[in-house]
Each structure stands twice: as C-alpha cells, then as structure tokens.
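Could you help me review a protein record that somebody else here produced? My question to you is simply how this chain folds and whether the tokens agree. Thanks in advance; the entry in question is below:
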Amino acid sequence: MVVDPPPKRRASGFRRVRTVHDLQPRVEGNSAARRVTSDGIYLSPLRQLTTNLVETYHICNPQFRYESAHNPRRVLTKPSKPAHNDGYDNEDYDYVLYVNDWLGTEEGHKYLILDILGQGTFGQVVKCQNMKTHEIVAVKVVKNKPAYFNQSMMEVTILELLNKNFDPTDEHHILRLQDSFIHRNHLCLVFELLSSNLYELIKQNQFQGLSTQLVKVFMAQLLDALTVLKDARLIHCDLKPENILLKSRSPQIKIIDFGSACHERQTVYTYIQSRFYRSPEVLLGMSYTASIDMWSLGCIAVELFLGLPLFPGTSEYNQLTRIIEMLGMPPLSMLNTGKQVGQFFDSYEVWNAHTSQNERKYKMKSMEQYSREHGTNEQPGKQYFKATTLQDIINTAPIPQVKSSRCSGNEVEKEMANRAAFIDFCQGLLNLNPVTRWTPQQARMHPFITGEKFTKPFVVCHLAVSYRHY
C-alpha cells in the first residue's frame, strides 16, 4: 500500500513565489516599529543607518555625541610643520591646510576644504565646497607675504574688470572669479572649478600631438580671449599649456592664472613669461606690449600639434639660441634697443659704402664665451626634432592614420593642406618683430581659423584696418 508523503510545510515568514511581482520587496511605510521624522515621514532602515546614523547611534547610546571637529583631518600642505603666523603657516609661509577644515568665516562665505588641486610659488589651490550654495569650487590660498598678496590683489582687480566689464556673459573663455576674502592673513580667491590643463591633455596623449582640427578649435577660443584682453589693454604675461584649462570633458577651454598679468601702461616687470614661451623682446630686455602673448600662443599652437615644446630652452641663452637657429636673427631695431643684448651678442662696426657711414652689426656669442663670461656651464640642450625649420618640423610629423594604413591618398592630401595653412598661421604668430607680429584680431581672420581654402600666404595690411588673403 502506497502512502502519499505529507505536504511540505513552509518555514514561518516565507511565502510562495508564483510570479515576478512576488519578488518585489514590500515596504511597510507606516510600521509602528519605525522612527518618524519631524515631518511625519517614516524612516527606512537604510536611512536610519546612513543619513540619520548619528541619531540612531544616540538612541543606542544616549551618551554618544558627534561634532564635525572630530572628523579626520588629513593634512594637504607640504611641509606641514607649523612655523609662522601663530602656527597656521609652514616655513614657506603657506597656510597649512587640512581636509574638512574651513576657509572663511561664519559671517561671510564658508568653504569646506575637500582636497588639494595644486601648489606653486604663489601658494596653493584647493578644492572646496561653498557651504552656502553647495557648489564645488577652486580656492587659491596665497602665501602670507606682501609681494604675493599685492600681486594677487592685482589679479582680483584684473579679473573683476574682465568678468564685469568685458565678458559679463561668460562667453570669451576667461576664468571667472566668484569671491575673495582674507583668512588668517592669507588672501583667498574663489574660482569656478575647471578640469585638467592642456599640458595634461598632451601628456595623456603620450606626447604624440593633437590633430590640426583640435588645435584649430583651441586656437579659435584662445584668440577670442586674447581679443578681449587686447580690448581691455591687458597682457596676460604667462600663457602656457598649464594655464589653459578644459571645462569638464568638452573641448571648451578657459585661460587661468592672471597673477602675472598687467596693464599695457604698467609693464614694470622684466622677468616674465615661462621660459619655453618667452618672447624675443623679453629675452632681449626690450619694452613689451600685448604682442608677447601672441608669441606664447604661437609656441603653444606648435606644441599642441607636435606634442613637444618647440623651444625647450635650458637657459635664456639656450632659449635665444634655439629661436635664432630656427627663425634667424632679430631685426637691427631690436638689437639696437634691447637692454640685455650685450649679454648674448658681440657688436662691431662695418663701413657701408652706400651710406658712407659705419653700421653696427651683431654676432651671437659662442656657448663657450657666454659660459666663461657669466660663470655658467651652458650645454647645447636636447634636440626633439631632426628637421631645423618650422615648416619641415610640422610637415614631417607623422600622420596617425598613416601608421595604421587606413589613410587614403585624399586624406593625406587634405591633411597636408591643413598643415600648410597651420604653418602659415604659426609663422604669423612667431614673427620675431613684435611690431609686425599678428594681433589677435588679425590672426582670427586667417584661413586656418576661418576654414576658408588656403592657397597662398596670408598677408595683413598694417596700414589700414583691413585684412586680405592673397
């Protein structure tokens, strides 16, 4: 006799799953066992153990108390040993910054320190949260020294002028200054938070260089910004890839670091511009104008395309040597007026039969002579390119698609046409003579920027406000 087994009993609390709907969680929102907020909302276990964790701990242990001051304080400044300013500054007069510390005051704006973004001779830049708007921003904390304080106050003045009077709608790729205040004797400047700089972009690309199309996109934006600066009669004085930042992950960029900027009528400093991007007139000790920014722009344009700096000088002498080897001697008008010319050149007189008078000529000092006279040990420096002319360096740069054999003859022809326009564009920016070097307004008319077909060298008429493409 066969007896059917008794039906299996389900454990208490379990229910049979028949459909997908039975797998959905059922939350009893008004369970009597749950806490209720002041608004009468029942708290789920997830919220009780996350956003309401402090209250949960307090219920478990009435003696528990939480204070934000107990948060971990990871030090961000190096060195971090207190030395000045009642222990708030280190030996370099940098403010010693900690994660979860505050900048600002209760009465004014307060900024919660999140992380370090960078450090330089001027001070530090930290990532912060504006506790009033909850926006993530970048705060420059300037060194506690009068020279840096005064220069940074000039940066505040210049950015306020640009932001309010010349670019009020934030259209011209210039950094926005949001706030400024004093915190324990340190001037703090609050900026919009941007992404990585163009040097980092080149580095991420293994220093292989960017396409002419992407270089064009960047150059058009930089020329737009420099046009605004020229209208405001301002000189940036330190244009380089590190001072051009991307907005998020888009090809939109902004010029930053106006700490060295000045008005055209107040060009008091002689040691300006980072060496690789330093103009011939600054190297020679001449008075300078906004055209020095255009020289820097030409150096940046070539570096973006090649992936390596065009003039990586190891010293001012080496920098000038590299420029002259590629572009030739500066005009006599520059050599006759530069205050530093005697450091780099020997001068001598030559009789001119046509004018019946002596003419001054210049010859660059040899590396050995310069080293002997200045007590240095000059070296030739590393050569990044086999070619010696700007045209050959650009034209012989590899085309990425050709390496993978996917580039047709038409594409190569199109690329070389783009390069021809690019070479002509760069030559206008890297003009040794600042008087005839293109202005931002003139460079914006070049076919490389406008997209017009390039057939012959672009010629600018300097005597009239008109531009012609011959």
Observations:
- Residues 327 and 389 are 8 Å apart (CA to CA).
- The longest strand covers residues 110-120.
- DSSP finds 16 helices and 14 strands in the chain.
